[in-house]
Amino acid sequence: MNNTESWWEVMAKGFLMVLSGPSGSGKGTVSKALMERNDDIVFSVSATTRQPRPGEIDGENYFFYTKEKFNDMIDNNEFLEHAFVHTNYYGTPKKFVMEQIEKGEIVLLEIDVQGALQIKKNHKEAVFIFLLPPTMDELKDRITKRGTESKADIDTRFSNAFKELDFVGEYDFFVVNDKVELAVLDIEAIIHSERLRVKRHKNIKEQVTKKQVTKKGGN
Ligand code: 5GP
Q1: Nearest C-alpha to atom 17 of ligand 1 is from which residue?
Q2: 26 close to ligand 1 (CB < 6 Angstrom)
Q3: Domain carrying residue 94
Q4: pLDDT digit string (tens) for 138-185?
Q5: Is the CB of 119 under 6 A from ligand 1?
Q6: Domain membership flag for residue 47
Q7: Which end of the chain is less enclosed by CB atoms within 10 A, N or C?
Q8: Looking only at Cα atoms, what is the longest distance across the chain?
Q9: Is the Cα dihedral 138, 23, 57, 101 positive or negative?
């Protein structure tokens, strides 16, 4: 490090940021808006056995895999976490996430509560955010209006929403998604304070004391 580098560049490190919340809480919309404003956040594309919805792109929204391929990946220990959610399997491919963290990126994982709990066991440095709808009525409205699920699927997702809410206590932060822009600002505030967390900077004292004072004069 030299004296012209800011502390920020030298000390900022990558970490996992887990975003959960019931179906219809707006995780997708909030993540997208967050990523548009922050180019140091990378999205972890999950694998799933679910069928693509109209407009969804393989490799961008999800990696759409067969059950066989998904099971192979489990057997080969290629997932950071995986879970059966609603009626399909979902999992976070490990390699990409670890490479990005190593590079110093913030990696956004948009996953369900079961997956989040698995991550919590092995990654103490991860930050856990739970996205809440303003009300449960609004939640049902959003799931129904999306129009991409069958009636049975909507019912499953709505009843699962109540079960997911039970786990909010396991998370570090909650964000209410009434207005997307405000939810994004809340998440940016969380990121900002997480970056300033002393525990994320192992040698903070050494780094500070190592810096030589070259400026003359002043106080
Ligand atoms: P959807 O089918 O609506 O895209 O997603 C259904 C649920 O699966 C959402 O709660 C979403 O966060 C969750 N999900 C998506 N990807 C993953 C993943 O990689 N792991 C886990 N555990 N859940 C996921």
Answers
A1: 111
A2: no
A3: 7-218
A4: 998 988 887 777 888 888 888 999 999 999 999 999 999 999 999 999
A5: no
A6: yes
A7: C
A8: 73
A9: positive
Point out the ligand 1 atom lying closest to the alpha carbon of residue 115. Answer: 22
Place of tokens 């066991």: 121
Angle subtended by helix axes 27-37 and 180-195, to nearest 10? 60
Q: Compute the residue count for the chain.
A: 219
**For residue 52, which phi and psi values (nearest 5 degrees)?**
-65, 145
- Chain segment 42-64, per-residue pLDDT in tens: 999 999 999 999 999 999 999 99
CATH number of the domain enclosing 122: 3.40.50.300
- Stated as kind and residue range, the H or E segment containing 56 is none
Type of residue numbered 60: E
Provide the residue type at 199 as one letter: K
How many domains in the chain? 1
Q: Is 24 in the pocket of ligand 1 (CB under 6 A)?
A: no
